[in-house]
Amino acid sequence: MNDPADLIASSLLLVVIGEGVLWTRRNEPGLSRWKFRALLYGIAMGLVPLLMAQPALFARFTTILTGLCLVLFVLLIVVLYFFKRQLQGVNRVLLHAQELHKVGKTSDAIAVLQNHRRDAARVDKNTESILLTEMARLSLEISDIDAAGRWLDEAETLSKWNQSVYSTRADLFARAGDRESACDVIQRGLANLPQSVWLNTDLAKHLTDAGRHDEARKALARTIELLDQEKHLDVFNPEEWKEIRIAPLVQQLGLAERPLVTDAD
């Protein structure tokens, strides 16, 4: 019964459980992941020689582990089911708010989102951040600048990896005529999300509006490079993005007949 393969599988299961814990806390920037992993891997590696040397202990450990696996499997299925249901519910709320906004009921749309904030928080911090950012965007649409700023502050505190926070805050500055601050906000977002097609596109746009055309061309070249790589894309439809967002910038910068130059060139 003292099978090394079973022991290795048990250690791997411990590592998988630990990685699952890290995933649930992925939006907590203060968490020392490398220390957690060092402790976890140390325990997993220490179990192998300890249990190999004590067959009786190994048999007991295997029995406990088998029951634990069954419990964890059931819990995982339940958690995934409710997570999916909650996420679908938040998506429906966001779509409903968009429909209300389209028919001129923007204040009602914001109220609907605010009433479902707790549902978004149950999913994770990033989802709650997305909902708050949408409230900020809609507040901008009705020129409620103070409310938009408050929602954005809360959204950014919840998640530094929500690109719409930076995009919406940049729009807030741009509407006030502060184009340099708009550029600074997008660059701050890119420090956290350098591979974001969305933010690189926004940077090119705001740099263009600020008259910083050389920098805008570099940002646009970076965006096109990311789209061509087709990796880690944060836009739903890359082809539509090229047509609606990229093409106008190419025309505006007078690059229709000129090759874009990247930093590598």
Indicate the percent of residues in helices. Answer: over 70%
What is the gyration radius calculated from CA atoms?
24 Å
CATH architecture of the domain at 179-265: Alpha Horseshoe
The dominant shape is elongated
Quote the distance from N terminus to C terminus.
62 Å
CATH class of the domain at 179-265: Mainly Alpha
Could you explain how this protein is built, in words?
- The protein is an all-alpha fold.
- It has helices at 4-24, 33-53, 55-102, 106-115, 117-123, 125-141, 145-158, 163-175, 179-192, 197-209, 213-229, 238-252.
- It has a domain at 179-265: Serine Threonine Protein Phosphatase 5, Tetratricopeptide repeat, CATH 1.25.40.
- Helices cover 79% and strands 0% of the residues.
- Helix 5 packs antiparallel against helix 6 (125-141) and helix 10 runs antiparallel to helix 11 (213-229).
- It is elongated, with a radius of gyration of 24 Å.
